[in-house]
Specification:
Blueprint: E1 2-7, E2 10-15, E3 18-22, E4 46-48, H1 54-57, H2 60-66, E5 71-75, H3 76-83, E6 89-92, E7 98-100, E8 103-109, E9 126-132, E10 135-139, E11 160-164, H4 173-183, E12 187-191, H5 203-212, E13 216-218, E14 225-227
Parallel strand pairs: 3-4, 4-5, 5-6, 10-11, 11-12, 12-13
Antiparallel strand pairs: 1-2, 1-14, 2-3, 7-8, 8-9, 9-10
C-alpha cells in the first residue's frame, strides 16, 4: 500500500491499481496558494469523505469533473448532498464492512461535528476502517480521543493508524498517544496539523513523545510518499 500526503487531512491511498483520495482540501488551503495542485493528481477512482467541513470536502466537485467515473463514499447525508449535484456516490453509515475492489470498508465513529459551508447538515462525522490484503488501516477523521477506539482492534490488527494531532479542533499529541494505545497501533501517520496557525505543532517534539512510548509517528512533507 502506498500513501501520498498533500497537506492537512488530504492524501491518496494506492491499493493495487485503485486510487483513493481522502478529504480533498486544495482550494483555499494556504499550503497550496499559487500552486497548480492538479498536476500532482494523475488518477482518482474513489473519494472518501469523513465529514462535511469545508477543509475536507471543498474540492469534491472539482475532482469529480476531472475524473468522470470517480465514486464518492461517505455517510448517507454527505453522499446524498453530492448525489444531487450529479456525482456518483455510495452512502453508508455506522454498520458492517462493505466490499469494494480495493478491500473491505467500514464507517466508524468520530467525536466531532459535520456541516457544509451552506449550513446543510452533514450527518454523523466518522472515520474509516479499511481491510485489504496488504494490511489494515484506520482513518480516524477529525476526532477527539474516545473509548470506542478500543473496539477497532477486535476487527483485526492494524498496520497503520492515521490520526489528527494538531489539537484545538481534534486530538493533540498526548491524546493521539492515548488513542494509539486504545487502537493497539504502533505506527501512526499524523495529519491535521500546521495548515493554520492554531494547529501548529513542534514536529520533532511530537515524534519524540511517540518514540518514548515505543511508537513511530510519521510526518510527511507535501507530496511525499510512504509505503507500508
Amino acid at each position: 500500500m502506498k500513501i501520498t500526503f498533500f497537506s492537512h487531512s488530504t492524501y491518496i491511498l494506492e491499493i493495487h491499481d485503485q486510487c483513493l483520495l481522502v478529504d480533498p482540501f486544495f482550494s483555499g488551503n494556504p499550503v497550496f496558494i499559487n500552486t497548480n495542485f492538479l498536476k500532482f493528481i494523475k488518477r482518482v477512482d474513489y473519494i472518501l469523505l469523513t465529514h462535511a467541513h469545508y477543509d475536507h470536502v471543498c474540492d469534491v466537485e472539482l475532482f469529480a469533473s476531472k475524473f468522470n467515473n470517480v465514486l464518492v463514499i461517505s455517510n448517507y447525508e454527505i453522499s446524498n448532498y453530492f448525489s444531487k449535484k450529479g456525482i456518483k456516490t455510495y452512502g453508508i453509515n455506522y454498520g458492517s464492512f462493505i466490499s469494494f475492489p480495493f478491500g473491505k470498508l467500514k464507517y466508524v465513529w468520530a467525536a466531532h461535528s459535520s456541516v457544509f459551508n451552506d449550513g446543510t447538515y452533514g450527518g454523523n462525522p466518522g472515520g474509516f476502517l479499511l481491510h485489504t490484503d496488504e494490511g489494515n488501516l484506520y482513518i480516524s477523521g477529525d476526532t477527539s480521543v474516545m473509548h470506542e477506539m478500543s473496539i477497532i482492534p477486535a476487527f483485526g490488527k492494524l498496520k497503520l493508524s492515521i490520526l489528527p494531532i494538531g489539537g484545538r479542533y481534534t486530538m493533540d499529541i498526548e491524546e493521539a498517544i492515548i488513542a494509539s494505545n486504545f487502537l493497539k497501533s504502533e505506527k501512526i501517520l499524523g495529519v491535521h496539523y500546521d495548515t493554520f496557525v492554531d494547529i501548529r505543532i513542534d514536529k520533532e517534539k511530537a515524534k519524540e513523545r511517540f518514540f518514548k512510548k515505543g511508537k513511530e509517528l510519521v510526518l510527511l512533507e507535501k507530496g511525499k510518499t510512504i509505503y507500508f
